[in-house]
Amino acid sequence: MEMASINKGYKMLKDDKEYIEGYFKICELFNRKRTLIDIYKEDSRKSKRKKSPETTKKEQREISDINTGIKKQDRLFWNKVDRSLKKGKHFAMEKLAAHYSLDLFEKKILLFFIYLEFHHISKNVCSENELVTTFDCEDSIINKMKRLQYFTPAGALIKNRIIVKESRRAYIYSVMEYALSYEALDLFSKMLNGADIE
User: Fold this and answer.
1) Beta partners for 168?
2) How many degrees, rounded to 5, is the angle at CA 122 between CA 121 and CA 124?
3) Per-residue pLDDT tens for 71-94?
4) In 3-state terms, what secondary structure has residue 81?
5) DSSP string, 141-166
6) CB of 60 within 8 A of CB of 115?
7) How far apart are CA 98 and CA 107, in angstroms?
8) What's the whole-number average pLDDT of the chain?
């Protein structure tokens, strides 16, 4: 049983459908993690008492388990992509990423926003902090700080208007959040239908 699941991870991806559906399964885990973090923060905000050490450990364990699942599936998925590309397969996301010089992290962010859009997730916008926290599977402050560079005007996702800022009022302060741009979604849709980037 173990050997079968390991071997399954080395198969190639046939087409865009397998590529998108394959990564959306990982996006599901990222979104579950994001939702849990939001729930834990809201519980802390509402509670008048400090959380017990047992509760904190339980929450950390749940997030850690999700991180473990993400890392395993993520590694297998990108190995499949590499193997498929080496065998001459072509994928719309890879063409888009090459055109805009997106690195692996930026591809993951873009795929996550597409997932949020098409799975009708009610909260399909994310702040910088939310994104770097959700995509940090090592629980590393340094990784989070390093990844903030992706959300500067020079970052490929921002510079090319793939994701755009949306200002929304939250309590008494304004929070800047990102959403997938209509133009990026439209372009990706056209590429899935065989169009080239102009």
Assistant:
1) 175
2) 70
3) 999 999 999 999 999 999 999 999
4) helix
5) HHHHHHHGGGGSTTSHHHHTTSEEEE
6) no
7) 10
8) 88
> Residue 16: which H helix or E strand, with range?
helix 16-46
Strand runs labelled E in the chain: 126-127, 163-170, 173-180
Mean pLDDT of 32-54: 83
85 by Cβ neighbours in 10 Å (0-12 / 13-18 / 19+) ranks as middle
> What's the chain's length in residues?
198
Residue 168: per-residue pLDDT: 52
Q: How is residue 90 written in tokens?
A: 């072509």
What is the Cα–Cα distance from 128 to 149, expressed in whole angstroms?
10
- Per DSSP, what are the bridge partners of residue 166? 177
| Angle, CA of 56, 60 and 64, to the nearest 5° | 170
> Using CA atoms in the order 159, 114, 189, 10, what is the torsion angle rounded to 10 degrees?
110
Range list of β-strands (E), 4-128: 126-127
Question: For 126, phi and psi rounded to 5 degrees?
Answer: -140, 145
Average pLDDT over residues 142-164: 95
**Nearest Cα to Cα of residue 104 among 185, 35, 26:** 26
Mean pLDDT value across residues 53-71: 92
pLDDT for 196 beyond 80: yes
- Can you give the pLDDT at residue 5? 41
Q: Percent of the chain, pLDDT > 70?
A: 89
